[in-house]
Amino acid sequence: MTQTGKISRRSFIRNAGLATAAIAIRATNKSTGEEPAPEDGRPINIGVIGTGSRGQTIMRNVVRMNNINILAVCDVYPEHLKMGQRMARKAEAFDDYRKLLEMKDIEAVLVITPQYQHAEISIAALDAGKHVFCEKCMAFSIEEAKNMVLAVRRTKKFLQVGHQRRYNPLYLKALQHIQTEVIGPKEHPITAIRCQWNTNSDWRSFVPDPKWEKLLNWRLYSDLSGGLMAEFGSHQVDVADWFLGAHPVAVSGVGQLMFYKDGRDVWDHINALIEYPNGVTMNYTSVLTNGYDGVGEQFMGPYGTISLSLGYPLGTGNLAFEIGKKQPVWVKLAHAQEVEGRTVVTLITGKKYIAGAEKDAQEKIGAEGEKNDIVYEFEGFFKSLREGTPPVADVVVGYRDTVTVCKINEAIAKQTRIVLDPALYEV
Q1: 390-426: per-residue pLDDT in tens?
Q2: Of 47, 75, 79, 253, which is the most exposed, with the fewest CB atoms less than 10 Å away?
Q3: Which of 115, 48, 130 is nearest to 81 (CA)?
Q4: Res. 161: pLDDT tops 50
Q5: C-beta separation of 166 from 238 below 8 A
């Protein structure tokens, strides 16, 4: 079960075709969605507002879930609305979300629209007595995000934001090991973070008529979109906040429109430096012109490093440990390699680490059927509705993430370092 050999740190990080990992983690006092809703869970009636590419991806997963009924779909673009109708054949179809919100039988709505529409539609849904799932980045501005928090408190309804890593067993397992001092001591387990989201993509959608340009390509225009930081970086800032249990104290960065000179004004390359308490820094990079290293996060501590990277289908991915001082029991049972004097551990897909070993070593590491992080986060959402427990990725999580995203974009635009008042994260 154990192999050793010498490889370079860079080679390990670059070539880590590591483990597809989805590990069952115990539930917390909030609804994490690790366990699927039981087949006899009460039916939940929902409406879907926004049936474009992301909405269709979510619907493909939700329509297969037990006792979830899509009663209505809504989109202002006719072709997207037709696709939504095909996927939820019994649903009513609207091009005005206010008509959908008038339906009394709908308990919750999924807001999967462009970012600049999130606040308006989510607040209207809450005021109409509906629970809300809202895609990230939760709002276009800090003020909008604050209004969403106030609406949740006023209506006493749930709002879950689409930070699905908080429901992904891969990330829950990584956090468990950070909290048990695998990569660093309890008082300072993480000393630095590196994240990237790199892709070969022009981010452009096909437009059959110029009148639909801004509707279909809203991500490319700064009056409608927070750009790479909102669409990609918001996920990874949220993970850093979560793992550190803290919020940034200062931000700076650079951004440029380097390659895609096609009328857009959103940067296609960004680099941000995000400073946390106790001197912890997060270096973040996102580019649209090169997919090298893909999507991933590295959490570095005095004893070692945890590397996380996502793959496809969404929600599968890699979890690797570079272990120095303190080695969990399963290290000797896994695939281990020596990297510059440290042990690097790869959790192997589908293996069960070994009858008779300590409990942690007995966990099965492997993908669970066709589950992905969309399924995990919606199991969490529907579990919250059935049990009346607040979601993990709640409206305050969404608010704080929006604050950081907006401030990073401001720092990049002004080419300055912005010190963040801790009061900014309170609402």
Answers
A1: 999 999 999 999 999 999 999 999 999 999 999 999 9
A2: 79
A3: 48
A4: yes
A5: yes
Task: Judge contact between 249 and 420, C-beta under 8 A.
Answer: yes
| pLDDT score of 368 more than 90 | no
Tally Cβ neighbours within 10 Å of residue 168: 30
Q: Residue 322: CA atoms inside 13 Å, Cβ hemisphere, count?
A: 23
Cβ(138)–Cβ(118) below 8 Å: yes
Secondary structure class of 202 (helix, strand, coil): coil
Domains located in the chain, CATH noted:
6-25+165-366+394-424 (3.30.360.10), 44-164 (3.40.50.720)
Sheet with 131-134, side-by-side order of all strands: 92-94, 68-74, 44-49, 108-111, 131-134, 159-161
Distance between CA 143 and CA 260 in Å, rounded?
31
Quick one: the chain helix, strand, coil %, rounded to 5? 35, 25, 40
- Is the distance from CB of 241 to CB of 247 less than 8 angstroms? yes
Range 223-236 average pLDDT? 98
Average pLDDT, integer, range 37-58 = 88
